[in-house]
Amino acid sequence: MQKVIVTGGAGFIGSNLVDELIAKGIRVIIIDDFSTGKKENINPAVEYCWEADIYRESVQDLADFMQYHDIDTIFHLAALARVQPSIQDPVQYHNVNVTGTHNLLAAAVEAGVPKFVFSSSSSVYGNAEVPTSEEHELDPMSPYALHKLIGEQYCKLYSTVYDIDTVCLRYFNVYGDRMSLDGAYRLAIPIFATQIKAGKPCTINNDGEQRRDYTFVGDVINANIAVATSTKEFNGEVYNVGNGDNVSVNELVDMMGGEKSYGYGVIEPNETLASTAKINLDLNWKPKGDLRKWIINYMKDLKI
Fold it and tell me: For residue 169, which phi and psi values (nearest 5 degrees)?
């Protein structure tokens, strides 16, 4: 791995990945449409940032771009995120998350890029038995979850038919530095932080007893780099990337010191909890994040 593309490299997870790659001496190109990413997130050592929508660009233009920059690895993080907005706008989500992923895969094959790392989601499992292994039955409950599953299937198909090595990482509720405090695609933690700072109760969906496996962004970055630098032929393999424990939404709000407000009924899994035995065995990857300690520092930084 010498020169890579990170799609969504100005976003929350993508910019953290870019920083770590550059720290390791890897040359980095970003593709981002800045719908949610921020220019201030971009590491100044990035060689080039192409402001583009991957689903609007032609496969040939994408392939020419990859060939021109002599890319050997693609980290595909660009996506419209979150379950509830995908239910409200399934067509646009499909365009970005399915067509965009397929365009990128097809371009990578055309350009002869040997490795493709796809950011998937634990949402592909739906309501699952916990802890959930990669062999668990898949039951997407939203357009977003289905689109991530289709992306995985495209990766597997392209590895089988077109001889590009692909690997898919199923993230479980990622948190960490650079989570956006504004916009339609905010995560639960920054939503609650904003409400607490404004002196308002935290608006909790359903009864708040739903449990989530919160995974530190640094652990997600380490998983990406582990699969990218491995000599293993993955051929569409999937790996959970989670912390291996979980807390309820009510417990999360208590950690943050907020009041609670209920009454927002939404479709969502009751519990997520990753089994990380497979990625530990294959890649010697283990999570290191501590949600409770991180929350304390996060609230101090926000002066809450």
Answer: -115, 120
pTM of the model: 0.96
162 as an active site residue: the answer is: no
55's torsion region: left (phi>0), alpha (psi -120 to 50) or beta? alpha
Which entry of 55, 93, 144, 158 is annotated as an active-site residue?
144
Among 75, 71, 152, which residue's Cα sits nearest to residue 112? 71
Task: Give the angle subtended at the CA of 7 by the CAs of 302 and 40, to the nearest 5°.
Answer: 35
| pLDDT score of 267 | 82
Distance CA 265, CA 289 (A): 30
Give yes or no for a contact between 136 and 127, defined as CB atoms under 8 angstroms apart.
no
In the block, tokens 């990945």 appear at: 17
Give dist(CA 136, CA 120) in Å, integer: 15
CA distance 170 to 182: 25
- Sign of the alpha-carbon torsion through 53, 56, 59, 65: negative
* Among 56, 73, 62, 86, CA closest to 18: 73
- pLDDT at residue 20 is higher than 90: yes
